[in-house]
Each structure stands twice: as structure tokens, then as C-alpha cells.
Structures
1.
Amino acid sequence: NAGVTQTPKFRVLKTGQSMTLLCAQDMNHEYMYWYRQDPGMGLRLIHYSVGEGTTAKGEVPDGYNVSRLKKQNFLLGLESAAPSQTSVYFCASSLDARSYEQYFGPGTRLTVT
Amino acid sequence: KQEVTQIPAALSVPEGENLVLNCSFTDSAIYNLQWFRQDPGKGLTSLLLIQSSQREQTSGRLNASLDKSSGRSTLYIAASQPGDSATYLCAGRGGSNYKLTFGKGTLLTVNP
């Protein structure tokens, strides 16, 4: 039982390049989340999903897109990376939205130059 | 809008000391509050989840309390060890989409 996994662990992009971050969970959780963590800002919700085929905007969605084609996977895309998107990205999942713990992946450290 | 504050931002204690980490939130209409631990360069590890109907949760040397009326939660760590050194984050769940709102964390250092 791997829990929540994220690939890649590190990535360096040039401004304007695109990439996709992959999150996978093997706990059969309905809800999945993408956060970014920046010094002095704490964790902020980018997008989330309440089930396969659904996505919704979080607190800071601009510049990102997401897809949840399979229940176990949640993809975060950057179409045209900007230096302001340099951050550590965390994926999380939970059994439901309200009552159960969120479990986090190990993170992806992204640098945009 | 929910705001979560953690004080102090950093705390240094000698090994063996009992300590309390504080978390305050502005909106008392939370469903639950979750405490996490984050080691440098790592993800978040869930420590305790307290439902709004509960006042305390315990796991080993950790005890978390929740007082919705005062907008406060505390994490008590007994007999601290150097391995407890990490950043501790609290997050309150509430709102129409049950979003988690995080504090900025308390960096704990336990000195041998």
C-alpha cells in the first residue's frame, strides 16, 4: 500500500514550457487535491476533485489545469510555466470531503527559470 | 473567510520537556481540525484529526484538544525527543466545500 505518490520529485522548467505532474493513490479515495507550498504563504489549494471525471477550482487556480480521468489519478498541468509558479506542489487524497483525514504525497519541487 | 494562525512560529526546547503548540482559527463553524508534521523536504504526515464533536484526541505522546467556542486547538507533546524536531501544521476544515485552511506552522527543535 503505497498511499499517495507523486511524479516527478524535482523538475526545472524554462518560462513558457509546459509540464504535467502526476498524482496517484491506491486507497480508493474519492477526493483528491493539489496544493502549493510557498515560504511565508503556507499551503494553498489549487484545484480539487470530488470523484472520477470531476474537477473544481480552489484558492489559486490561475495558470493551472487538472484532470481526473481515473479515480486513482489526478493530474496537474502547467500550460505555460511562469517564475511565479516556482513552488513545492503537494497532492492529497481523502475518503470524503468532510470527516476523514487528508493524506499527502511527498511533493514535487518545481523551479521555473 | 477562515484564517488559521499558529504561535509561536518557532520553538526550541531541551529533550524531555513537555510542550504545547497553539493553533487559533477565526471561524468557529469548523467540522474538524487536523494536525500534521512536516520534516524538511518531505510531505505532510497526519498526526491527529479532531472532529467538531470531540474535545480531545490522543496518539502515543501526542494529545490534541479543540475548543470551538474560543477558536483554539492545542497539540501537547509529552517527553519531547530530538526525533520530534519538525514543522507542525494545523488545518481547519469548513465552508461549503469543506476546504482545509492551513496555518503557517510552528518549527520545533528539540535539543539533545
2.
Amino acid sequence: KQEVTQIPAALSVPEGENLVLNCSFTDSAIYNLQWFRQDPGKGLTSLLLIQSSQREQTSGRLNASLDKSSGRSTLYIAASQPGDSATYLCAVNNAGNMLTFGGGTRLMVKP
Amino acid sequence: GAVVSQHPSWVICKSGTSVKIECRSLDFQATTMFWYRQFPKQSLMLMATSNEGSKATYEQGVEKDKFLINHASLTLSTLTVTSAHPEDSSFYICSAREQSPYGYTFGSGTRLTVV
């Protein structure tokens, strides 16, 4: 059974810092991995999708890497802003339809 | 990109009544949709997989008679919480998978409060 862990569970940083969120998974036979953002009381917004054959994806200030063999992914946020404050969720898609979510990292960026 | 519309965004109902939540894929067809439940400060818990034209597949521990799922078309799935009780109060989110590049898109969620 796939298990996904996110570290840290919470993070508070001053504005402008570069930061790294970590995601690890136990079963490396994944189809793809997706990073989401969730604001309080809202649904999930997809940030980046990495296919199993890819090593990284970039979108603006966000960069996600994938090391399938070691069961790890990182989300790098450059020059963090207060608007980046949210919960970030990592989700792994094994062959099939089901997503397995990590517990999330609650990020607070202070002005 | 793909858009999934979920309605209503919030609902308050009395104990014993039923509530229907709709999930629509607006610009793509979804043969499969997913229903999640989320408790405060916790991650998402998959409740069931909704399959167009056939019965939903429920996760272990989820009461199929309480959480009725209908997926009658390729763009619409509904979740009906029957005989709602206060413990059913939660945040419910649906999602669907795009055909390409196989990423998942989520609705905006429904906050259900049973009083």
C-alpha cells in the first residue's frame, strides 16, 4: 500500500526566502506525482504534475523534482511571498486511478 | 486547463434531511470522478470512485447507503448525503482526471454543516 509523507508539517518563513518542501513515498512504481495548493476552506489547485519519466517541472517561481528510485519529490519555492501562504499537498498516482495524498505542509510567509 | 465545478460551495441542513452535491467537468469528459472528505487540518480521504454508467466503488468504511453517488453522464457526478447527522459535517471535494496529461483537477469543495 502506497504511503506518502510530507515534511515539515508546518513552516513559517520571512518573505523573500527560498524554501523546500519535501515529499516521500514508499512505492516507487508510480505513474505520476502532483503538487497541489489548498487555501483555507477551498479546493485544491494543481501546481505541477511530474510524469514518472520526468525529473523535474517548473512553473514560475516553483520547481518540483522527482527521484522515483529513492521515492522522493521536492517542491522548491523561490523568493517566497505572503501570497504563497497555504497548505501544499503532494499526491502520488500509482498505475490506476487512485491518488494517495501526503499530510500536507502548512506554509506561512510573513511580510 | 481543465475545470471542475462543484456546487454548492456551502450548505447548512437539519439533521435527518438529505443534501445533494454536484460535480461537473466543464471542458472535458470524465468517465471517472472521485469524492473526498476532509476534516479540519487533515489531508483528503478518498470516499468513493464514481464511474459513469455503473455503480460507484466505495472505500472501506464508507457507508454506500448513506453516501449515494450517481454518475449518469460523462460530465456530472452527484453525491447525496442521506439522513444527515452532525457527524457528517465536513468538507467534501470532488475531482476528475483529464485525458491528457493524466493530471487530476479538483472542485472548489462543499462545506456541509448539519445542525
